Amino acid sequence: MLTEATVERMFREIIASNENSDDKFDQAEELLEAELRDESPLRHRLSVELDELRSLAAK
Description:
Strand content: under 5%
Number of helices: 3
Number of strands: 0
Structural class: mainly alpha
Mean pLDDT: 93
Radius of gyration: 11 Å
């Protein structure tokens, strides 16, 4: 299991990448699911942020 700081850094790198939006959002979600516990405050915060980014990309 990675540290929360490492997971957050990797999450930011994925989101900032030039990949297709759907692919990078799926990759970021998989990272959160694989590396953070369900009850993690960081997982909750990044999941909410990911949902907001998906909504913005859909517009």
